[in-house]
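Trying the structure run again after the queue cleared.
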Amino acid sequence: YALAFAARGASVVVNDLGADTKGGGKSSAAADKVVEEIRAKGGKAVANYDSVEDGEKLIQSALDAFGRIDLIHRVHLRGSFLVSRAAWNHMKNQNFGRIIMTASAAGIYGNFGQANYSAAKLGMLGLANTLAIEGRKYNIHCNTIAPIAGSRLTETVMPPDLVASLKPEYVAPLVLWLCHEQCQENGGLFEVGAGWIGKLRWERSQGRILRQKSKPMTPEAVRDQWKEICDFTNATKPTTIQEVPFIELSLHVLVSLMDLNSLFLLSHVLLSQTMAVGQKLPTSSFSYSHTQCILYALGVGMSTKDPDHLRFLYEGHPDFSCLPTFGVIPSQSSIMDGGLSSVPGLNIDFTRVLHGEQYLELYKPLPTSGELISEATVADVLDKGSGAVILLDVNTYSGKELVCYNQFSVFVVGAGGFGVKRNSDKAKPPLPPPNRAPDAVVIDSTTRDQAALYRLSGDWNPLHIDPSFAAMGGFKKPILHGLCSFGFAGRHVLKQFADNDPSRFKAIKVRFAKPVTPGQSLQTEMWKEGNRIHIQCKVKETEEVVLTGAYVDLHGTSEGSPEKLPQGGGLQSELVFAEIGRRIKDLGSELVKKVNAVFGWEITKDGKKAAQWTIDLKNGSGSLHKGPYKGKADVTITISDEDFMEVVKGNLMPQKAFFSGKLKMRGNIMLSQKLEVILKDYAKL
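Done. Tokens:
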């Protein structure tokens, strides 16, 4: 390490007590030899012969010679603590520090005959994890490596050829990178050796709650649930102490010491929220006929005054259909019928519950009658400070066929502050609309009885009809169901951009921002971006935004739809874009995570623009459509049909095409490097 750091310009204190392999004796020779080697190559180094238990002396050597301290290499627990403590304030004062702890596989996994060594080495990992947390705000990062390398100790027990393959030079590059100011890794644990590097993390099974009301917890219950306790299917990967589920259990003790005012703040949710994650709600069934479909359509404002609405209101219509947003109705029955209250760890005061966000995705048009089965799971529980958010994933089936998926985001007012994470990668995120005037605006009036009508579809919450219950929730009047506004917005998009064709409706996401009072008018503003329609709903009378971050994803029409792109006879590049379209359909979400960009393509033929394409790997689950991007693409590429094919087939290097003028780009040209993910890995002709 010392040689490697010096070679990269670092000033190095080489610390070596000079003990023999058994820990006895003392000599300056080992440290001096390394210092001489560094200086002979023009580097800066001084020797220090103190024990790491004399951490202050070691650090002072660095300060005397170089005036500052950035990183130390140390071994074993006490020495690691003492040296780190000696360096800590100096690192804080200069707002920079990098600490590397050297642990061992013996500490991580245990090893026969090494109890004391294993204990010390794993102790270093615990020390490093805490230093990483405490040092973060001072730009002090602490990481741990568990290396295997040839040394004076290992060469006595390993054959020479194996020692040669485990050179320390194969470990040093990781140490250098972790110490670099550009490296933001903090609190990591890495195994390294023989040129291989891997990162380790903890994993936790979903576990089982064995405690039941008014019943003792028994070892027999542990025995009977042992397989489930140890089942790592759908395991979580905790990274902070706040994610330890039983920490909340200690709050039960705290509750007994609280005054009534403090206790009220926690009374809306049981103090073991994270233990609810992964719990399944009771399966629910929903039987319905065309009557429920028509009743729902009336509940979200459809009327026979509009001839286009008849296909959703009259069972005798030749194209009689169920509105796509009806997909929330069968899924909500799994929550409304007491399912949410049955989950261990969730004790909710329903007068404080608000619907925060909703996502619905359809996998086929909804049948107009039948029986649907819904299976709901608590996906996550989040602490938003002023309240708790519960994410519920609901899959709805017709027989064994998945019909639709819903994610309910439920906000419990006043139930926050219990100390777990604020955000979740399991949540379907809302997205802001484009920064331009909307492409379409629809204004629709609700009636005074809109909530009374909508509740007949199954949401019987008295918040929407009983003034006294609404007052308990802090509202002057009963409010309209958020999912009623959701239905209004969904049908506005369906009519405006899909000709009321339910088969084109793919998904809808909304965030409920403000309540609507029955009788107010809803103004839906819409922005078309490819097959995604961004939406925002306001109350016309007050200009208050009630639905934000909302969008509807539509299936494409035959023009530009990947399945129906021309397969020859025109431009050769159309074959490639057809294949890219199929891959986006299969792997879009994965590609969006890797790429996060919108690419515009201008394909020329005989010097003239022949086709335009948009590859959107930034929004939703990705999309491809023929034509220009409605907004501003991150990068736009112009290339002839022939040269495009040569690039795709690997006969023409993109860099060469660019510098020769065959390939032109505007926008963020650095993003073009990410095209390899699309063209090389996924577009095999």
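Residues 572-680 form a domain with the Nonspecific Lipid-transfer Protein; Chain A fold (CATH 3.30.1050.10). Worth checking whether this holds up in the mutant runs.
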